[in-house]
Amino acid sequence: MQSALAVLLCLSTILFVRAAQRVDLPTIPLSPNDASQILDRSLASLSIEFSYLPSFGGNASDPNTLTQELMQRLVERTGVGPDIRPGGITVDSTQFSPNASALELDESSSGGIWKTTYGPAYYESLAVFPNSSKIVIDVNLGNNTVQFARDEIQAAVKYVGWDRIRALELGNEPDHFAGGSRPSTWASSDYTAQFLGWTSVLSRNLSLPKDIFQSGSFAEDPTSQAPMTTVSTIEEGIDTTGVIKIFSQHTYQYSTCDPARDAIATLPNLINHQNITAYLDLWKPQIAAARSAGKEFVVGEYSSVSCSGKQNVTDTFGQALWLADTVLYGASLNISRMYLHQGATLVLQSNQQANSPGFSWYDLWYPVETDRYGAPRASPSFVAYLLITEAVGSSGESQISLIPAPSPQLAVYAIWDQSVLSRIAVLNLGIRNVTASDEEKEATTVSLDLSEYVREGSNVTVKRMTAPGLDSKDSSAVTWAGQSYADGIASGDEVVETLHGGLLTVQGSEGVLVRL
Questions:
Q1: Which positions fall inside the Beta-glucuronidase C-terminal domain (predicted)?
Q2: 0.85 cut: is pTM over it?
Q3: Residue pLDDT, tens place only, 450-507
Q4: Which of 145, 186, 475, 512 could cross-link 182 (Cys pair, CB 3.0–4.6 Å)?
């Protein structure tokens, strides 16, 4: 006997198929001839504001259990934990002291963190993350004192260990140093010269591995006006000493750092496949330059809206759709890993920003109880990292490609596993808000015929990332395969659909992963 839930699912699917717009896809190649590089299983990684890592990780005697559970959900899908990068703007005013407590903050009257002193206990916060998670060690470049960087690297090697260290990074967004910690004339060539000088000294004094540094972490979009890019530093000879392992730049598509940009940081602008792909295409020359040098390219810090996100935009289910499309498209461009930033509003970011102090509106989870967010919980966007990690898989032999779709707000990604077409991710970025009428829901629903890829006798399954609407802010109502993850643990019965006859239906503001 079918359960009531199964009957309702079947009936709803029938109704949507009748009203859905039929979309025909071009033929998906059965082999990955023009697909991406092999996907890193840590594609969906995390950057955490340096001065807030203890909030997210806890310590040895009181580990953050929500963080532990959420990280385990990712390990279950790929076999490895995400990379963790304690970094961000506060790293450039840090100083390690062997006699300090875990974290000692010197703050201004307005809540600005102008100095962070930390001791050995700081590293206890990293123990909450999976042992398989690699750590990017970001050290102080902003204070222009190489001894600070030396002490911080030495401490990281001692308390984290080389087996967990992915790379060493000097500073955060040095293209923003001009007129602050550096002269107003500070330019790309100055950064390149300092990078070469410091890495030479640090490598010699600390007997560092040959290629261990992550270069760049630039903030500005790589347009012709950008003060520093991967391309400019390579042209200046930054890679001539062989110490670079990875090139990194940051991406924030929108911003609340000033009123003009705040005005256009809206859900309709954000949840737009054409906007997402056009934006990331700006990084293609940087990726190509890094790969030509034989190095990886990563987005070492990113989110949708800089200066800590935007209320009613990045704290909604819409952020999940933006994340899924952004990371999967980035992977198709050969970005090795993308580090989603977690943290809090910092008053020193901008004197015009819209946000007040508190955990960022774009955080993937809220790690501790606060007046702003209430009890600790995953945000509505966490499910995106479940879709992404299942799309990547655990084999370490997957590749991805964006498949052209005739509908402008439909993103279709093919994933080949061990050179076999194995999974298809479909994201329908058509806007379906919580208050949408039945007619509005029908107008954004699409159906795709995937029968060509359904092998005879195979069991083709579908997992669905969905919510009551794009603007939903209730984590318990946002689901992946029928389950919500507000507490870090799956709640509700798992719903894995079977694709009968090859016809797939996807509502607006919904994503699915098809396993062939």
A1: 413-513
A2: yes
A3: 999 988 778 999 999 999 999 999 999 999 999 999 999 999 999 999 998 899 999 9
A4: 186
